[in-house]
Amino acid sequence: MLNEFEDLKITSIETLEPVIKKIESMIRTSKEYRAYIGYCKQNIGLHFTQTWEDIDLVANKISIEMHHNILTLYRLVAIVGTELVLNLQTGEYLLTWDIARAIIDLHLNDEVSIVSLGITDHELVHANLLDIKANNTMVHIGEYKTFIRKYYEYITPEEYKEYIKYGADPDFINQYISKV
Known about the structure:
It is built from nine helices and five strands, in the order E-H-H-H-E-H-E-H-E-H-E-H-H-H. The chain has helices at residues 13-16, 20-28, 31-44, 73-86, 96-108, 119-126, 144-151, 157-165, 170-177, and strands at residues 9-10, 64-68, 94-95, 114-118, 139-140. The protein has a three-stranded antiparallel sheet. A two-stranded antiparallel ribbon has the order 1-3. Helix 2 (20-28) crosses helix 4, helix 2 (20-28) crosses helix 5 and helix 4 crosses helix 5. The radius of gyration is 17 Å and the shape is globular. It starts with 8 loop residues before the first strand and ends with a helix.
């Protein structure tokens, strides 16, 4: 798996930051991640999108992309990578695949917030020309409490507010905002 990527050693935050995009790419092209996306479309009901809620895009063979909502994939890699790096002992190192595997596991354990979007809508969201509605039933926030309990100190106050906006328990979130 992922033979086309060179696995680089990470020993510090300084060696992590330049490879975050590479780790994102490793994740997106992995067999496990593609299987997870297929699972979401078939089993979680993410085969509709925010702007096309009444049209089953999968049944109509229209491409759907998964958008990491609240925390982007980049932020997930940065948060988890930072936590893993800071817990290294002297002389230890991580490989880029170690971080990619941890992120894939978060997806498989349903700890990641995602929303399904058509390709054009996804591009518009990234260009800040389309807003994802907070009350959108197509947003799947997952088991966010498990993720926050483990990584709370690396999540920004703005990201915590996004969790609340998309339906997370405000009392739970507020206890972690005060710790940051």
